[in-house]
Write a structure and sequence with these properties.
The complex is a heterodimer of chains A (741) and B (152). Chain A has 741 residues and is α+β, with helices and mostly antiparallel strands. Chain A is built from 27 helices and 18 strands. Classes of the chains: A alpha+beta (741), B mainly beta (152).
Chain lengths: 741, 152
């Protein structure tokens, strides 16, 4: 235990009296020392005294933090001396040397920090707690069967996923025996296989976790408070272990995840460390567990990874098989009996491509003169018969790639849980419509924006319990995450009942930053949209006052990359609602085919506001800004597609051609094309590595006539205009400013 | 990598002779390793990609796959030639990327013994990995990896 005391002393030195989280963590450590029967009685007594003194500070009975910490240090120093003395006799060499680099307030009179700790500890430890020793240091047995291990890794990930889902269910209904069983079985199966494969550390952890679950199953303890944290933490640790194993399999070096020993110890005797089902113990123990195991990166971005990222690689390969855990167990309560086959995603993508090709090839046949002429009725009938089959095949192949949002929502569930503990807030997450399906390629892209928004909601949206009470709200904040279909789109909605967006503050900042000239005439939604402008989010202050705005431009970009859009609505003091409106699948883009000269391009329909043929009086050339078109009081820049893309033979007179009004990202502009060819759904593909990135083009697709068509990147297109002196570009991305209003 | 094998002669016996597909480009005869060639096709409708390298002729649809086509004439600074009946696209695979090569005419499949392959004496273009002697004629052996930049 000497190392615990040393650690305590080290932390006390750096402790600020107002850092409650750290104080609580230290308190927990003290509690451990006091309860650990392996410690000499005097050490336990001293620890208990230190703990009580610390409580004075924590519960406000003592104002002078410095004095309390000083007292605690003195008590612990004595304890350290006793511990050392008891274990290895008087060792005085170190104390003088240490005087030299002494912190002024604290005397660290403890002996031996180089090597001595281990010497001192190895003897008593190997007796009392042999299992946590160094004997798990080499994980991969020399004669390991790599294929078997690989299978084990895959299987374990599935089990862990299923177990995590079950644990989160238990949060809601702690007495659900079936969920407990699912988790228990997961650990049990992992334990068995790990034992067989000679993976000691995995087996041992699984064994202890299984014990914990078995106690829950027997009704000896309840799944709540500290126990819940412990179970979730065990699962995370198991996931880390499996990941390490995966690394080792790939030729990397096996290394035990940090915190393994500690967790292992906790699992052996949770009560010994003050863990109970007391919901109030969640605060203390929870923060100790979360705080000490999560890598303590305090940087904003690092925190986003609190969510179980570990599952990543595997969830990518898991493909469409959502409910595969039903396979080898006698019916978990999630969709039992749902059989699935793992398919490599590239094969799946190829299949979908081929079916798309078939559809196009078929339409070429169906439109053939011979078939259309009506002279060969039999042929027409057969062709349309084939058409029906082809369409069905297309629907089916598209559905292959659709996966439910449930796993993503589960991650959010976990994220909210961890974040709210950390932020000291009470937040409940309600998820609805998690069975809604979207293209699996989109799930990966959707996760980051969603995580970002959830973090914003917990960190900034939901108020602290006290603030909520003052505002007459219930102390527990609610976040609703909902998915549903709407008009051919999937909508993912994130609502919170927090403090909402402050309209005035946003306006103030926007004007200050020169994003807008004044707020007059702007609708609420236009104002809220300002938070998505890149320049807006860089200001830290605004995020505090507005409650939002951290990196919202990133969110918007992410969603737009999915050909979707974000809408925001908010009421000050009542909450905020973000709607992410996404196409069913990224594979298909709704496009408008336009013609310029001999060439045709696809404009994503989602970016098209309207099309019209201008009158001469609507057109003007503004010095320094190039051609403009006046549309209902709005002055929009006019860009000529044929000029941007050097297309020969295009119609040059706008009044004889067509203007497509485009809204994309921060830009609104009119694009001059010859004519519209028609609407078309296309399967978007990348230009390929040999072509690389091309300004103004987001991808390519095969058109109805079998040719390749290029899809315009309506946001990026504007960059082309900058080098084009003839048309020029507005100075601000927030242009245009309404005129004459 | 193919070049390395050719020069070092590390592959012995039967591999000392390598197969090449030869084709015409203006007055010259070029060759690509037959192992990298996937198929040869007529000239499909090509969609021009604006604002990109000039020698990138455009994109074609090869049975559902969108494949970029390099006009080798433009790549080697020759004059652009109209597409004729004999024009062909050679589809090849370079480092996992499929690529079409627009050529004037496909000629022959040849086996060239390594002994008859020499380094390009002029070093005029890094697109060449050597010159193969066939009878009294020289075939310019293309290094496909250098013909088109691959953007990772």
């Amino acid at each position: 235990m000497a190392d615990t005391i040393n650690e305590l002393l080290a932390r006390l030195v750096q402790l600020k009296p107002d850092d409650t989280t750290e104080l609580e963590a230290i308190r927990d450590l003290l509690l451990q020392c006091a309860r650990d029967e392996a410690n000499p009685d005097s050490v336990r007594t001293l620890s208990a005294e230190a703990l009580l003194r610390l409580d004075d500070l924590l519960y406000g009975e003592e104002e002078d933090g410095g004095a309390v910490i000083g007292d605690v240090c003195r008590l612990l120093e004595t304890a350290a001396e006793v511990a050392m003395g008891g274990e290895e006799g008087a060792e005085s060499g170190g104390s003088i040397r240490r005087e030299d680099r002494e912190e002024p307030s604290v005397k660290r009179d403890i002996t031996g920090d180089e090597g001595l700790d281990q010497d001192a500890l190895s003897a008593p430890r190997s007796n009392q707690d042999a299992a946590t020793g160094e004997r798990f240091s080499e994980e991969l047995p020399p004669d390991a069967d790599l294929d078997l291990l690989q299978d084990f890794v895959t299987e374990s990930y599935e089990l862990i996923d299923a177990a995590e889902a079950a644990l989160l269910d238990l949060e809601v209904s702690p007495d659900d025996a079936e969920s407990v069983n699912t988790v228990f079985r997961a650990f049990h199966t992992i334990k068995g296989t790990a034992g067989f494969l000679g993976l000691t550390s995995i087996k041992e952890l699984a064994h202890r976790a299984e014990n914990l679950l078995s106690r829950i199953r027997e009704g000896e303890i309840r799944y709540a408070g500290g126990y819940a944290d412990l179970a979730l933490r065990s699962l995370d640790m198991m996931k880390e272990l499996i990941q390490e194993l995966e690394v080792a399999l790939g030729g990397g070096k096996w290394k035990k995840p940090s915190g393994y020993e500690r967790l292992y110890g906790l699992l052996e005797n949770p009560e010994g460390y003050g863990i109970s089902d007391d919901p109030f113990s969640t605060g203390n123990v929870g923060s100790a567990i979360v705080g000490s195991f999560v890598p303590s990166g305090s940087g904003g971005d690092a925190q986003g990874d609190v969510s179980p990222e570990p599952g990543d690689d595997h969830s990518k390969s898991a493909g469409a098989g959502g409910g595969s855990q039903g396979g080898d167990h006698d019916g978990g309560h999630h969709g039992a009996g749902e059989l699935s086959v793992r398919v490599r995603t590239d094969r799946l993508d190829r299949l979908i491509d081929m079916v798309g090709e078939l559809v196009i090839a078929h339409s070429m046949v169906a439109q053939d003169e011979l078939v259309c002429s009506g002279r060969y009725q039999e042929l027409s009938r057969k062709t349309s018969q084939v058409g029906k089959i082809v369409r069905e095949l297309q629907d089916l192949s598209m559905s292959l790639r659709m996966v439910p949002l449930k796993p993503l929502f589960q991650k959010v569930n976990r994220l909210v849980r961890d974040l709210s503990v950390k932020a000291g807030k009470r937040v409940s997450l309600v998820t609805r419509g998690e069975e809604t399906e979207i293209d699996r390629n989109m799930v990966d892209v959707l996760r980051d924006p969603l995580v970002h928004m959830v973090r914003n909601a917990v960190d900034h949206g939901i108020e602290s319990p006290e603030e909520r009470r003052q505002r007459g709200k219930s102390e527990e904040g609610t976040i609703v995450l909902e998915a549903y279909h709407s008009g051919g789109n999937v909508v993912v909605e994130l609502r919170d009942d927090g403090r909402g967006l402050n309209r005035e503050k946003i306006l103030e900042k926007a004007v200050q930053r020169g994003l807008i000239e004044s707020g007059t005439g702007l609708s609420n939604s236009e104002i809220y949209d300002l938070i998505f402008i890149p320049g807006f989010s860089t200001a830290d202050k605004i995020s505090e006052v507005s409650g939002r705005g951290v990196g919202m431009d990133v969110v918007k970009r992410g969603i737009e990359a999915l050909h979707g859009r974000v809408e925001v609505d908010s009421e000050w003091g009542k909450g905020t609602c973000f709607k992410m409106i996404l196409p069913l699948t990224m594979a298909i883009t709704d496009g408008m085919l336009v013609q310029a000269g001999e060439e045709r391009y696809i404009i994503p329909t989602v970016n098209i506001v309207k099309t019209f043929r201008p009158e001469p009086q609507q057109l003007s050339t503004v010095a320094g800004k190039g051609e403009m078109v006046l549309l209902r009081g709005e002055l929009l820049p006019l860009y000529r597609l044929h000029r941007l893309f050097q297309i020969p033979g295009a119609v040059a007179d706008p009044c004889a051609a067509l203007l497509v009004i485009i809204a994309s990202g921060p830009h609104r502009y009119a694009l001059l094309v010859d004519e519209l060819v028609g609407q078309q759904q296309v399967v978007a593909k990348s230009l390929g590595k040999a072509v690389g990135r091309v300004a103004g083009i987001s991808g390519a697709a095969i058109l109805g006539d079998g040719r390749v068509g290029l899809i315009l990147d309506t946001t990026d297109l504007v960059t082309l205009t900058r080098s084009d002196e003839l048309s020029g570009v507005p100075d601000h991305p927030s242009e245009p400013v309404p005129v004459g209003a | 990598m193919a070049g390395a094998i050719l020069k070092s002669g590390s592959v012995e016996n039967e591999a000392a002779v390598r197969g090449f597909l030869t084709f015409d480009l203006g007055p010259e005869q070029y060759a690509v390793e037959i192992l990298k060639v996937q198929e040869i096709g007529g000239v499909l409708p090509i969609t021009r990609v604006p604002n990109t390298k000039r020698y990138l002729k455009g994109l074609v649809n090869l049975r559902g796959k969108i494949i970029p086509v390099v006009d080798l004439r433009l790549r080697f600074d020759m004059e652009e030639a109209p597409v004729t009946e004999e024009s062909c696209i050679i589809f090849a695979q370079v480092r996992g990327v499929e690529l079409g090569l627009l050529v004037d005419r496909v000629a022959d499949v040849l086996e060239i013994p390594e002994a008859d392959i020499e380094a390009d004496p002029t070093q005029s273009s890094d697109c060449l990995m050597g010159i193969g002697k066939v009878g009294d004629k020289a075939k310019l052996l293309l290094n496909l990896e250098k013909v088109c930049e691959i953007h990772e």
